[in-house]
Amino acid sequence: MAINPAAAGGSGQLKWVDLRSSSMKGASGKVTSGVTGSSAAEFAALLQQAALQSATGGSNGSSLTSLTDASSLGNLLWQQLGGTAETYGGISGEITQTMPTDYEDLIQTASAKYGVPVDLIKAVIDTESSFNPNVVSSAGAKGLMQLMDGTANGLGVTDPFDPAQNIDGGVRYLSYQLKRYNGEENMALAAYNAGPGRVNKLGVNNDAELMANLSGLPKETQAYIAKIERARAQYAV
């Protein structure tokens, strides 16, 4: 995500690079955060097999089988994924979505400081980085809230990979956009993603007008607004 207002191109999140574990990228290039779709059943079977092998003393050469049950195995995998938002149920293979808690205090603090709803902050972080603080987009945006270097510098963020700095800076920038557009959230999100210049060119004054003229924004930004809405539903209190 490129939130640098000067970046007219707004190429956004075409590719992701995890500075610590680049092997954890999906086919789309975005850092993956778990097992989805049809692979869930396969993953469940793997958990069950590992659990049974552990219980009977068997081994397939993997250190994961030293765990006593499938739940423990899932927890280890969850930790290896860097504390993502997904944990795995028992050997039934059920996937349970839980609210990320690693940055809960930072998010709550930034929300109170800048007046941005907690669920909106979490939705932005989820959409931007899947709660991985080490990713870099092909446009050069960095960290949890995907700050461009110029924007980060302007916000006083010296290390965009530091979650505390990144969240504080990203939420402050988002609060600027909310104030700019009188609390119209979709307009603020469009500005966060594509830059306020793109939004201003549409000549719209509220979210309803923005959505009626959404085709005037880059396709990435159109999809971005929808992704935020879906993600926000999971974090609503």
From TrEMBL:
<dbReference type="InterPro" id="IPR000189">
    <property type="entry name" value="Transglyc_AS"/>
</dbReference>
<feature type="domain" description="Transglycosylase SLT">
    <location>
        <begin position="106"/>
        <end position="206"/>
    </location>
</feature>
<dbReference type="GO" id="GO:0000270">
    <property type="term" value="P:peptidoglycan metabolic process"/>
</dbReference>
<dbReference type="GO" id="GO:0016020">
    <property type="term" value="C:membrane"/>
</dbReference>
<dbReference type="InterPro" id="IPR023346">
    <property type="entry name" value="Lysozyme-like_dom_sf"/>
</dbReference>
<dbReference type="Pfam" id="PF01464">
    <property type="entry name" value="SLT"/>
</dbReference>
<dbReference type="GO" id="GO:0008933">
    <property type="term" value="F:peptidoglycan lytic transglycosylase activity"/>
</dbReference>
<dbReference type="InterPro" id="IPR008258">
    <property type="entry name" value="Transglycosylase_SLT_dom_1"/>
</dbReference>
<protein>
    <submittedName>
        <fullName>Lytic transglycosylase</fullName>
    </submittedName>
</protein>
<comment type="similarity">
    <text>Belongs to the transglycosylase Slt family.</text>
</comment>
